[in-house]
Amino acid sequence: MANEHHKWLKTCNWPAVQNDLLHYSDDDLPRRKYKERDEHGRLPHHWMAAKAQTHTYTLAFVGVMTICWNPKALITRDNKGETPIDIAHRSGACAEIIGLLSITPEEVRSLKWKGMARLYAPVAYWRSEMNGWIRSRSYADCHKFINEHDAELVREVLKFFNFDLLRKIAANSQVYSDSLVFLALRMIHRHPLSLVAKDHSWPQGATLLDYSQDQEACREIVNILRLTPKYISSTPYPTLLRQHLPKQFVDEEIFGVYNTACTFIKHMKYDKAELVEVEAVLQPQSLIHRMLGLVIFPGVALVQDPHVRNLHEGMLPHMRVLHEGMLLLNRCIQEPGAGDGPTSVVLDFLRNDSDLECKKQEIK
Questions:
Q1: Which of 350, 340, 179, 339 is nearest to 261 (CA)?
Q2: Three-state DSSP state, 286
Q3: Average pLDDT, the chain
Q4: What domain range is 39 assigned to?
Q5: Does residue 164 fall inside a structural domain?
Q6: pTM of the model
Q7: How far is CA 225 from the centre of its chain?
């Protein structure tokens, strides 16, 4: 008699398989289940191959886990003489599952769970890594992951298992740190609905706030988890940071020198007359004309230029801001993975200004 995994896999119920695989206290039980054949001589792997036409991150996780439990299944034939990869090709399985089923049992044993997950189920892999870092309070590693990886991957990692990573934050945040609060804000900024997701393994369904209060999380984390998805979505991210983090940490640790780039943007908005004057003085090789190439004149050269000396004495500080601001803006644009870091401050500034101008036009 086939076990319940055959039934779940036949009906593409990947979440049920995932949930079952994650709650075994005895590793021998899933190994036995994934060696059981049904009346067609098929292992659960054969049914997964037959039903895997549409890729999901949960399917990828299930695929890696089932193969790790029984690597020999990759070359096991059913009553028709077909292996899982034969069935996958015939049924039009997604490319990710075909790639997974194409490896050998020896490769599975060599790569083990972590190597397999990193290659074929990256969302599950990085969720596992983040889980470990949060437990050990290695928040710098969490920030490094967010900074260095594609924004879509980061969002999917945070969404995987609903709100599990934020639940880990709530359960391991008794001791306050700026880095911890910053991490929580980055996570809910990318996945606001996690704030209202419920864990139905608790009697009435626990929320993140319930977890934080039950685990006696620090006051700052509790306050963050009281926020609503609507508030998170409607509040500019820089504002959110300044509301919940010390000003010194926000200015120095998060934004740092990029605040000068924001000052540059402000000059671009409010000092247009001065910019026109600079453009006229420095043509045909003006600072403004060369902005797209971000070619910056050295400050010393600007001061030595006789035309510049004739400018109003209040112009020079502004030009130094332009010089430094454009240089930093160039770095800001090129900075990898700066999706919610200093770059967003500049982008939000521009976006808000653009929205304001649109509203003015509508009023007119």
A1: 350
A2: coil
A3: 76
A4: 4-120
A5: yes
A6: 0.68
A7: 19
Beta bridge partners of 199: 206
Has residue 252 been placed in a domain? no
Please enumerate in sequence order all residues whose Cβ is within 8 A of that of 115, keeping only pairs 6 or more positions apart, or say none. Answer: none
Is residue 90 in a domain?
yes
End-to-end CA distance of the chain: 74
Extract the tokens encoding 304: 């030595």
249 within domain boundaries? no
- Taking alpha carbons only, the member of 237, 191, 217 closest to residue 340 is 237
Same domain as 216, residue 139 = yes
CB 185: neighbour CB atoms within 10 A? Answer: 20
Q: Domain with 41 in it: what CATH number? A: 1.25.40
Q: What is the 3-state secondary structure (H, E, C) of 299-339?
A: HHHHHHCHHHHCCCCCHHHHHHHHHHHHHHHHHHHHCCCCC
- For residues 17 and 70, membership in a common domain is answered with yes
Q: What gap in Å lies between CA 325 and CA 258, rounded to an integer? A: 8
Q: H/E/C letters for each residue in 39-76?
A: CCCCCHHHHHHHHCCCCCHHHHHHHHHHHHHCHHHHHC
Task: Give the residue from 43, 152, 59, 153 showing the smallest Cα distance to 97.
Answer: 59
- Between 282 and 26, the higher pLDDT residue: 26
Q: Which of 120, 152, 172 is the last residue of a domain?
A: 120
Task: Confirm if 186 and 192 have CB atoms less than 8 A apart.
Answer: no
Return the SS3 of 199: strand
Total number of domains constituting the chain: 3
Kindly write down the DSSP assignment for every residue of 105-155, as one continuous string: HHHHHHHHHHHHHHHH-HHHHHHHHHHHHHHTT-HHHHHHHHHHS-HHHHH
- Helix, strand or coil, per DSSP, at residue 298: coil
74-113 pLDDT tens trace: 999 999 999 999 999 999 999 999 999 999 999 999 999 9
- Look up residue 49 and give its amino acid: A
User: Which one of 120, 154, 174 terminates a domain?
Assistant: 120
Angle at alpha carbon of residue 224, lines to 222 and 225, rounded to 5°? 65
98 and 204, same domain (yes or no): no
Winning range, highest mean pLDDT, from 65-74, 237-246, 301-310? 65-74
CB distance 189 to 240 below 8 Å: yes
**Using an 8 Å Cβ cutoff, are 63 and 27 in contact?**
no
Shared domain for 20 and 109, answered yes or no, is yes
